[in-house]
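User: I'm preparing a small set of examples for a lab meeting where we compare how different chains pack in three dimensions. I only have the primary sequence for this one, and I'd like the structure in token form so I can line it up with the others. Please keep the answer compact; I'll paste it straight into my notes.
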Amino acid sequence: MAATAMEAMPTTERQGALGGEQTGVILIERLEGNGTGITAADVKKLKEKGYHTVESCIHAPKKELEAVKGLSENKVEKILEAAYKFVGIGFQTATELYKQRQDLIYVTTGCKELDDIMQGGIETGSITEMYGEFRTGKTQLCHTLAVTCQLPLEQGGGEGKCLYIDTEGTFRPQRLVEIAQRFNMDPQSVLDNVNYARAFNSDHQMQLLLHAAAMMAESRYALLIVDSATALYRTDYSGRGELSARQVHLAKFLRMLSRLASEYGVACVITNQVVACVDGGLFGPASKPIGGNIIAHASTTRLSFRKGRGENRVVKIADSPCLPEAEATFSIQGHGVDSAQD
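Assistant: Understood. Below is the structure token output for the 342-residue chain.
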């Protein structure tokens, strides 16, 4: 299939085909030698901390690079100086950015009505948050996206693999087989192209992003799913006394997720739980997504899910920098997310 055929291509070419706001990544090894004073040992230390590309060094605060064991302040200066020669981070015209976004790739959700209100599907290069009560279809849509991201570009896919971080134990590979059959895809190839990991605590969840960065630097990925991004934070941190620590940790996790989306041009999809509003009533929402302003600001697009009639579910665009508020109805079928049933 398309994703497998891309394996032999250089990383910069593979990632560039994804579109988004970048044309490819530059591997961290490019900084080594050439009179930069950067050695293979320095590169190894950076990679151990999740810095696999030149862009990742530029995007990180200087103090984070200085915190890497074995790197002096002078060495960090040399790394940044060399990195800036490879990547321009200055201004560009709106015209240039507009042209880049014309090539942006969207991953189909499997439901035409939902794709329509999102102008094509899930946007690559950014974070899309899906929140709602249990049994509203969030995890089912994640399973469908794990398959559709492997489709060819002309069929609404991203021609890439999927990374799936599961924090609630709800991932079921047999669902991928059923969905693959719907799209006439080889079930075995679909399963091989989904890399799954179960996170058991919030620190482990953060560590898995470091592994994800290493995998993206080696192969072509179109989608990164975290289902759910907030579940472990609700158990690892409790009470108002730990609220500040929780939000700081969550903000760091989301920042790294945003960095991966930007560097590799992948679509990052996170699900979020909700909490009941004790003061909600006739004039206010009965529930709200957890995570507060931290997760609200980190997400580029926010989708609100609620139950409909029977197997139907309703999705509303709650927040987006370019999409108007709109609703779409979809259904959950044996073959994944599909158009609503009468």
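A couple of notes for your slides: The CA atoms of residues 100 and 107 lie 17 Å apart. Residues 1-23 have pLDDT under 50 and may be disordered.

User: Perfect, thanks.
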